[in-house]
Amino acid sequence: MQACPYCAGETRDLLSAPDINRRVSNTVFHLRHCHECGLNFLADPPADLGPYYTSDYHHVPKDRAELEEYLPMQRFRIDLLRQFCSAGKLLEIGPSIGQFCASAQDAGFTVHAIEMDAACVSFLREKLGITAYHSDDPTGVLRKLSVRFDAICFWHSLEHLPKFWEVLCAARACLAPGGVILIAAPNPEAFQARVMGASWPHHDLPRHLFGISIPWLRRWAAENDIELAFATTRDAGSIFGNRFSWAMKFQGLAPRNALAQRLSWRLGTLFGRLWKPLEDREGLGACYTAILRAPAQAGSLSSRPVEKH
Ligand SMILES: [Zn+2]
Predict the structure, then answer these.
(1) Measured in angstroms, how far is the CA atom of residue 222 from the centroid of ligand 1?
(2) Which helix (H) or strand (E) holds 245?
């Protein structure tokens, strides 16, 4: 029996699957579930994850103008954050090519980033003028920083990080009073996760090392002097994630030629529409976006009203 890497609790086999999304190898990986804290974790991550982030993982634009083409479809991200934090210093961990970083700059934030991909870091620094740290160890970078951030954002990056709870603790320590941590991640409690099982594309083994549920985040927050102020599976990105995974699922079943791949994507998208009334219900969607908010003053968390949305 393998103990939970977070709480050392008892665990059980949840599912086994190869790399169904990128097919880098035929190795079968095993996801386990902790009875104590509810965390899902990859029991046997490869010693070197590098090859699983294939060369097409990031498409680095030639300049900011090319990046701007991607920004309108992600506008909801900065709009969502600004409901909780409207200005100040922002750090994104795992920004890739920096669509959100650019939106945050446009909204007036001073933007920092921690990114493991060298080409992305060069783009962030040279084309966007962002203070970007090149590292695959965000905990180490955060512990050395003296900056205090008003917002620290993980847009679908937290589940990729080893010992992500240490990253969260380091991020919590770098928050200014009243600052927020934004986390967007796959929802292990999604309707799709139940019906698709091992073939759910959002498991994305072995790149996703963990499945982190909203209840897990709520408990972690309560233990770390920060509140879960907001969580939804109904923001624009999460709802897009619903359709995306049905399309991915169908594409994964189709032959690898271009026509079959295109048709299966369309068919998957159409099939996904059948489930829309169910998947659009709060809590059942494929992904979530959550906001953790630090107290405005040390020790004042219990006296603050919880914001309703
Ligand atoms: Zn556990």
Answers:
(1) 16
(2) helix 236-253
Q: What's the pLDDT tens digit per position in 110-148?
A: 999 999 999 999 999 999 999 999 999 999 999 999 999
Phi-psi region of 168 (alpha: psi -120 to 50; beta: other; left: phi over 0): alpha
Q: What is the CA radius of gyration of the chain?
A: 19
Q: Are 228 and 288 in contact (CB under 8 A)?
A: no
* 111 CA distance to ligand 1 middle (Å): 34
Span from the CA of 207 to the centroid of ligand 1 (angstroms)? 20
Ligand 1 mean position, distance from CA 213 (Å)? 12
The string of pLDDT tens digits covering residues 85-100 is: 999 999 999 999 999 9
Phi, psi (degrees; rounded to nearest 5) at 239: -65, -35
Interval 211-248: pLDDT, tens = 999 999 999 999 999 999 999 999 998 998 898 889 98
Amino acid code (one letter) for 138: P
